[in-house]
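Service request form, structural biology core

Requester: graduate student, group of Dr. S.
Request type: structure prediction, single chain
Budget code: on file
Notes: please return the result as structure tokens.

Sequence provided:
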Amino acid sequence: MSFRAVQDPSDADLERLQAANPANPFATVSYVLGRRALGAGIVLFVAEHSDVQPTEAVGYLSGRAINRRLEMTSAPSCPDTGEFWSGVLEFCRQNRVADVSIDSYCARAVTLPAWAAPSEVRDRTEWVLQLSSPEDLRFGSNHRRNINKARRNGISVTSTSDVAAARVHGELMAASMRRRALRGESVPVIKPAETRYECAFLTSGAARLFQAVHNGVVVSSLLVLHSPEGAYYQSAGTTPEGFEVGASTFLVSEIIRSLAAEGKRVFNLGGAGAEAEGLRRFKSGFGAQPVPLTAGNYRLATPVQKGLMAAVRLIREPVRSLSQRWAAL
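Core staff response, request fulfilled:
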């Protein structure tokens, strides 16, 4: 086996990765270009074997030398990844990477590295729908009622790659997060203006926005990442009025029909764990099946890096406190 880490890979390198993972939207050239536009340093990790397909994954570098971070969004699914992870670890040591985040979006299965480093490993579940022809799609009874309700209320669905539509999408995401927080769920705080990721993926061609419209107003919005054979439910939001008229269920059902008509073979509806029972029911109601996966965070900082980071915090804290006091005057 030979291992290489290609920093700032060419489009040709990324096209080979995409060709080997046609159903994974996180392995497309356009997704990587979107992350590059957001400021990430791109690294393509490749372990070549003599008799099987290479093990490949893209990593995203951020941060400065004393606190550099590596994120791997979609870890490789190869069952024997020991030598691959050894190569990644050596790259991290050579490039002074302090933190590594390894996730499993759209992975079929993941074997996390057995690194002797402080780590946090977590289980996660994605809900995956195998697409058939639009005529063969089957939804749960509650979903069918909501779909019929939406039709009676005249809901229509639009599709766009225009970044201007991201503003409304951000507002609806924030509204949905506030609603989930009121139900007692632990959710990130999203401000309506924080749509730079959505805009980057729309611009690079990695994503499309699907939106449900009622009486001329967008009441539900869903960003879908896509690849030659697959799609991924990236983010969504719905107004209270949209829920009342069944807009979110209708929107997803129309996206599924559209993807099936395009010849996509799989639609990944994203993650939902045991703590989000309502979200699990929503996704399973479309016929999606759970795929158990794992993800992990690893702390690789050396003692020198830890000391330097502690010193930087000590310097910054008095400056921050002084700025706050001046602002209060």
